[in-house]
């Protein structure tokens, strides 16, 4: 072999050692969704697209001061978010372990041994006692990564680490949305409870008036019993909404990770109607590039792609180096004297010849895992598209629903006023008053529900678009 050929082989081996990989080149799969959001009667025209929703920090979207403070409490104390952050730290450590395999592990070893042999075993006229002392520095076991097996495993660990960082972002976005949803639900149930109490007061007044009219011979016993049923119905609702309010507070305390101070709790939903900022959906590509669950799925896909490189490398030789340089002596005092130096160098080569199809099966598993990850990645994109489309459909119709519900509540309030006036003048029976009052109560309760649905739809759209603002992700730039 000529010196030129030897030099070329050495250079090629060094290039493989520093950057060779048998993993297939990664190409991002095409998004299996339309290029535009759905359109039709359920959707309204979007305004001009501004900055990406993912870049809109939650304090700028949730503008109500008390709600902001509750969200901040949750981000500091929620246990699910804490576990997600710890998972990021764990995956970072695992990645560093894999990355450390790329460089030799140098160990310093000191050893001493003593051995006593009888004369017949030692082949000497008398018993022999031997002491040995050694001190060395060397490489215990280092694999030359000529075919990228170790590097592929390191890349897989890196992508797993990045995926946990995106999982943490997903948990934070979901947490912010859940806190807001629980806060709004508490506000709505408190307002419903206040409405039930107000209705009970009115019903009790009407009941007393009806009993007085009955005593005067103006009203019938049927009217008295009908007024009594309205009082009891209002009492039932008060008990039910009292329970719901307590449960809403418990749910809010759970997601906040601590007891939310009473001063931060909402009184009614009406005071939080302007608690959220209006947002525009932008283009589907923005969602695909910013939603953390999609980025997480893509990182996992890249990791499975890197595993193929490790599976391919299993078909090629593995070269392992073991070496040591040190000093040894039979006397401790002569350990570092001249002439005590020793060294060893023991490279080994392992070449797979017959493994019963293990390596081929391992490659098939790695390729199947990659194909499964592609399907899951595409499914996550489709799910994200559907979530945003549903939120847009809800937003496109909720204003009409709210306006219609407000008009219905106004009309039933007028009907109740007229029916009561006719009853007091003796034109109609109390049954007409009772029916109109029940219709008014139901309309006002439904109006609260419509207001809650509108605010909840804004929170859902913000979450579906990947809102929440950038979160400090894992520091893996040095591993690229």
Inertia-based shape: elongated
CATH topology assignment of the largest domain: Outer membrane efflux proteins (OEP)
Count the helices. How many?
11
- Biggest sheet descriptor: 5 strands, antiparallel
| CATH arch. level architecture of the largest domain | Up-down Bundle
Structural class category? alpha+beta
Overall CATH class of the largest domain: Mainly Alpha
Mean pLDDT: 84
Number of strands: 5
SSE series: HHHHEHEHHHHEEEHH
Describe the structure.
This protein is of the alpha+beta class. It has 2 domains: 19-102 and 145-316 and 360-479, Outer membrane efflux proteins (OEP) (Up-down Bundle); 105-144 and 317-351, Outer membrane efflux proteins (OEP), CATH 2.20.200. It has helices at 3-19, 58-61, 65-77, 79-100, 119-122, 149-215, 221-256, 284-290, 292-313, 358-424, 430-464, and strands spanning 106-117, 128-144, 318-329, 341-345, 348-350. Strands 1, 2, 3, 4 and 5 form a 5-stranded antiparallel beta sheet that branches. α3 crosses α6 (149-215), α4 (79-100) runs antiparallel to α6 (149-215) and α10 (358-424) packs antiparallel against α11 (430-464). The model is unreliable at 1-17 and 471-480 (pLDDT under 50).
Brief summary of the model shown:
The chain is an alpha+beta fold and 480 residues long. The protein is built from eleven helices and five strands. Strands 1, 2, 3, 4 and 5 form a five-stranded antiparallel β-sheet that branches.
